[in-house]
Design a protein that fits this description.
Blueprint: H1 8-21, H2 30-48, H3 55-61, H4 63-87, H5 91-105, H6 108-111
Helix pairs in contact: 1-4, 2-4
Amino acid sequence: MNDKTTRLCELKKMTSDFVSRRNWEKYHQPKNLAMSISIEAGELMELFQWTDHGEGARFLADKRNRKMVAHEMADVLAFLLSLSNVTGIDLAASFSEKMSLNRKKYPVEEVKGHYRRPKKTVDHR
């Protein structure tokens, strides 16, 4: 499997099958899954906690570190996919909609090259 050839629905099915085979549906409730996403994201952040701006690339150059980062990213994704399955929220559609809102909220001509908020904002809800 790789990003170029794997469809999101395949990942969602793989996640669903994994949960189902273990009879974990009772634990995979939206609150628990949202908390698990945050916990796993915290574990991902912990890997970079004491690195400065320039050390991130050096940290990732080490194969062991890169594998740890990949596994934590996969944990975040697995819980996000499970939350999508449980809630029935279409991730691809939601992502597309949110990116459209972000393009309006952060127009290139106002934010290119810096992180300042644009002068006028669009409600992104």
